[in-house]
Each structure stands twice: as structure tokens, then as C-alpha cells.
Amino acid sequence: MNDDVVVLRYGHRPGRDDRMTTHVGLTARALGADRVILPDNAGQSAETIRDITDRFGGPFAVELRDDQRALTRDWAGTVVHLTMYGERVQDVEAEIRADSVDDGTPLLVVVGGEKVPFDFYDEADYNVGVTNQPHSEVAGLAVFLDRLFEGEELDREWANAEQVVVPQETGKRVVDPEAADAERVGDGDEDRETET
Amino acid sequence: MNDDVVVLRYGHRPGRDDRMTTHVGLTARALGADRVILPDNAGQSAETIRDITDRFGGPFAVELRDDQRALTRDWAGTVVHLTMYGERVQDVEAEIRADSVDDGTPLLVVVGGEKVPFDFYDEADYNVGVTNQPHSEVAGLAVFLDRLFEGEELDREWANAEQVVVPQETGKRVVDPEAADAERVGDGDEDRETET
After folding, report:
1. Which of A20, B40, B99, B164: disulfide with B64, CB 3.0–4.6 Å?
2. In this model, does residue B2 exceed pLDDT 50?
């Protein structure tokens, strides 16, 4: 997994966008990004994402920044802007992967919130559409990351988790990390499991 | 593309869930499902999804149902419940594809909203986690559908659209469907384009 895949949530309307912005951040974390940057008025979302990271593990960083525009302009690496008007993800994903993850160049993935300024389309190295249909910035980010990492992000291991979900055919099973480790080597200790 | 991949949004809190439920429906449409079923109190989301379908094409159906539980119980086909507690998507996606899309058996993909009743885990044929991390039901649905259809959904063509987005390296280009058809056969008519 690359050390420098960063998701930028561009724009945020407090109240109305809280849940979507939180989902953008949690999706970035779950699907292999190293960091999410939110507008500085999205403190509530940042708190939720940090809380999930404390409980379910990291490393994953959450930053609040008021200079979002400067950040994209000065990014020392590749900038991908996810937009339904962009090139088809299936046509450009291999090139983007080669330009970022494969050679360690930092990748900034911009997810629009409020209306993205028009000149932003020119500044981005790639404008990419996960379909050219209107749907969800969260869905677009998820599919983009899963394709960028070719599914390897699903096997990621988490450090410093307080709790670990053990995949199950049915029901819910949450254990402490030591118990999860024991199970992975085929030595599960049922007594240590903690159901939620 | 299969004729019977249906997404069920289980539970909805009017107001609080409107945007998420709308995104579930739009993601289902954009990423290859044939139909979305929403709880009958999600009329506002249904209206938005129908409006997008009228403008950007179909076929895609939106239904409101008050008997969601009966629907899952009586489903004549395969039921997949997306949950962070389920089996890893990368472990079961091939089997689910064989049990549904490949042989034409109708597939119901359940996306939780409010707390899903516990016995639901037993009733589903598959409980599937797109990671075992907390993130977003919209992200989980998106990755699940992209994997179910092995990316073929991205090449879907749309019928009866009033407008078509033409993938672009930069900027936004929206044309009427006849112009889009002409472009596909290499005979674009710039005069007919309508920028938004």
C-alpha cells in the first residue's frame, strides 16, 4: 500500500453535508487512502472519523485545512478530480496507477462537495468519471480506490485497534485484537470474544 | 447485464436519511442494478431518482414498498445483505455471481438503513462485508456492484435520455442523445452540443 494517497473533500456545508463528508472520510480510510483532508468547517466529521480510527485502527490521518485551493495547486504529485464529466475510469485507471501508486508519487484524489470552480478542471492532472451519470461522490470514491489499488486495500491490516470485526456467515462478532490475531493462526479463544 | 438485480434500501428516517437514501438509489442505477426498492416513507428520494432517470436515461425502476420484510423473506432468488459483519466480499463474490447474474436468478441486494433486525442475518443467503470496517452503505453498495458485474456495468448504454454527458479530459460537455450517437460513430456535430 502506498504511503501517500490522500483524499481531499472539496467544500463542505455544515449541517447539510455532515453525513456525506463523514462518509467520504470513512470510505477513504476503509478503502486504502492514508489521509483525508476536510475543509476547516467540517470539524464534526473530522471528530467522527478520528473516533472510528481510534476504535478500529489505523494508521489514518484526518486534517482540517482552510487553504484547500492552494493545496491542490501546490500538490507535489498527481491530482485526480472525480467528476461525472471526466474521462471514463476504466480508460485511465492504469495510467493513473502507474503515475502514482506504482512509482510512489503522492496522489491527491479530489471529491467535490459544493460546486467545484471551473478552472479546477484545468488544474487537475486527470478529471475522472466513475460512470458519466449523476450518483454519489461516496460511491465514485469507493469504486475509484478499489480500482486504483486493484482490490489489495481489502486485505489491509489495521494497527492499534481496540476492536476487530471477525467476518462471519451470519450474526455479528467483534473481538479484541489479540483474540483476532489468535484466530488468524487457527487458535481462537472463544472466551475472549465480546459481542456487540 | 442481468434483468433482475434489485437493490433494497432497508429502513429510512425521513429528513435525516433523505440524502443517503437518494444516493443509494442513484448508485444502484448508475452501477448496473435494474431497480431500487425504498421504504414507503422515502417518497422524496424516489422522486429525485425518477427525475434523474427521466433526464439521463434508463431503464431503471424505483418502487416504494411498505412490506420490506415480507419482500426479503419471499424473494424468489438470492438475497445478499451488505454488512460490515459479513464474509469478505473478495471471498464470496464469485460464488454470488454464479448464483445470480451468471444463471439469471434474481438477486436482491439489501442495504441497511436503520438497525437491521437480528434474524435478518439468518434469512439472507449471504451476509457480505465490503471490508469489515465501518464506512458507508453507499460505498459498500458501489464496490459490491462493480465487482458483481466485473466492471461491465460501466459500459452500459442508456435508453431515452434527454441529455448525455460526453467524457472529457477537462471541462463539462453535455449533448443531446442524437449528437452523442453521432460522436460514437466518429461523426460529431459540434453545433448540436449544449453546454451546462
Report:
1. B40
2. no
pLDDT digits over A54-95, tens only?
999 999 999 999 988 899 999 999 999 999 999 999 999 999
Q: Say how many C-beta atoms besides its own lie within 10 A of residue B143's C-beta.
A: 28
Residue B113 annotated as binding site: yes
Q: Which ipTM value was assigned to this complex?
A: 0.92
User: DSSP for B20-53?
Assistant: HHHHHHHHHHHTT-SEEEEETT-HHHHHHHHHHH
Selection from B46, B196, B134, B118 nearest residue A84 by Cα: B196
Give all domains of chain A, ordered by start, each with its CATH number.
Answer: 5-155 (3.40.1280.10), 163-196 (no CATH)
A131 → closest Cβ in B30, B89, B147: B30
Of residues B34, B32, B57, B61, the one with CA closest to residue B151: B32
Closest CA to A175 of A192, A187, A188: A192
Q: A-chain residues within 8 Å CB-CB of B172?
A: 85, 121
First to last CA, chain A: 31
Instruction: Say if CB B79 and CB B106 are below 8 A apart.
Output: no
Contacts of A128 (CB under 8 A, 6+ apart): A80, A81, A82, A83, A86, A87, A88, A89, A92, A96, A144
Q: Indicate yes or no: CB of A165 within 8 angstroms of CB of B132.
A: yes
Torsion of CA A136, A141, A142, A144, to 10 degrees: 120
| Annotated binding residue B188 | no
What is the identity of the amino acid at B176? D
Q: ω into residue B59 within 30 of 0, thus cis? A: yes
A169 contacts B127? CB cut-off 8 A: yes
Note whether B131 contacts A154, CB cutoff 8 Å: yes
